[in-house]
Amino acid sequence: MKIFSKISDTTSYIRQQKEDGKTIGFVPTMGALHDGHLALMKRAKQENDLLVVSIFVNPIQFNNKSDLDNYPRVLDKDIKLLEEIDTDVLFAPTAGEMYPEEVKKQYDFGALGDVMEGANRPGHFNGVAIVVSKLFNITIPHKAYFGEKDFQQLAIINKLVKIENIDVDIIPCEIVREKDGLAMSSRNARLTTSQREAAPFIYKVLQNAVKYAGKKSVNEIKKWVETQFKDKDEFGLEYFEISDSVDLQPITNWNETETTMGFIVVNMGNIRLIDNIRLFNNFAASNNGNK
Ligand code: PAF
Questions:
Q1: Is pTM, for the whole model, over 0.70?
Q2: What's the Cα-to-Cα distance from 231 to each of 196, 223, 225, rounded to whole Å?
Q3: How far is the CA of 61 from the centre of ligand 1 (A)?
Q4: Pocket probe mutation, ligand 1, options 26, 27, 30, 60, max atoms within 8 Å of Cβ
Q5: What average pLDDT is seen over the chain?
Q6: Same domain, yes or no, for 124 and 163?
């Protein structure tokens, strides 16, 4: 595996590989790799000649300083995992290399950027978009792989490549879960033993919400989810939203949209856990040609 920390070395190596006819599959990460990341990488390796991974804890996407300070950083361990799956290139820059000057760019993602993570983490998606756009310029991939756990981030990246006319295929990959259902996340490593034992409850609530979807009203399900977390001290429900799967805007009635999803964020102590689930397919809407 080639390990680069400089932008120019990374780009010139990858450009040469492309000139030699190789296809490039790229997986951007912030490190603390887990099986969810490795699933994206294995797929990228299978579908391309070269697997390129980046590890960079991007300071400008954190709206909370303690979340940034506490974000796990385990580069040596990550490098071993990347070697085991035969990664071709690792790009692991410093913040100074990525941001030699203050970045002032402001993206406008419209309504997509105003809900859920956009509303609750001001500046987060702007920071994600800036770094991902830079990483695409540096690694010039044919395909880039993103997990559906961060479903809204995936929608933002799809919009970003349109805004910036970036020539890359964005490949969405299903959420990878622990055996007990907890969505894999680098933040899970910071859960205490008792928090870790309790955490699968989040996915259980989502699964039960699926059972009620289309039978109870949208509002009843939202209320039901809120009640589930109310008396549980270890969980702080930040939001549960029921939204259209394409524009991610909240709905009030199942008939409004074709595919409806549930989006949840729960805080356990100062650890923020995010998850989502497909709730309901409204076949009548698809047949009527509704959105
Ligand atoms: O999903 C992540 O790990 C990050 O938001 C990303 C896409 C690597 C950008 O820093």
A1: yes
A2: 18, 14, 12
A3: 9
A4: 30
A5: 96
A6: yes
Question: What single letter denotes the amino acid at residue 131?
Answer: V
Span 36-91, pLDDT tens digits: 999 999 999 999 999 999 999 999 999 889 989 999 999 999 999 999 999 999 99
Residue with tokens 């796990």, as numbered in its chain: 72
Task: Tell me, yes or no, whether 179 lies in a domain.
Answer: no
Looking at the fold, whether 137 and 232 belong to one and the same domain comes out as no
Consecutive H or E run containing 4: strand 2-4
Same-domain check for residues 249 and 227: yes
Catalytic residue list contains 124? no
List 227's β-bridge partners, or say none. Answer: none
Same domain, 226 and 128: no
Q: In terms of residue numbers, what domain contains 33?
A: 2-173
> How many domains are contained in the chain?
2
Among protein residues, the one whose CA lies closest to atom 5 of ligand 1: 128
- Domain boundary, last residue among 173, 196, 225: 173
Ligand 1: lining residues by beta carbon, under 6 Å: 28-30, 58, 61, 128, 131-132, 150, 153
Atom of ligand 1 nearest to the CA of 56: 10
Lookup: tokens for 145: 């792989």
Quick: pLDDT tens for 218-277: 999 999 999 999 999 999 999 999 999 999 999 999 999 999 999 999 999 999 999 999
Judge if 239 and 210 occupy the same domain. Answer: yes
Query: Residue 234: which of 203, 265, 207, 195 has the closest Cα?
Result: 195
Whose CA is closest to 282, among 266, 261, 264, 268? Answer: 261
DSSP 3-state percent helix, strand, coil across the chain (nearest 5): 45, 20, 30
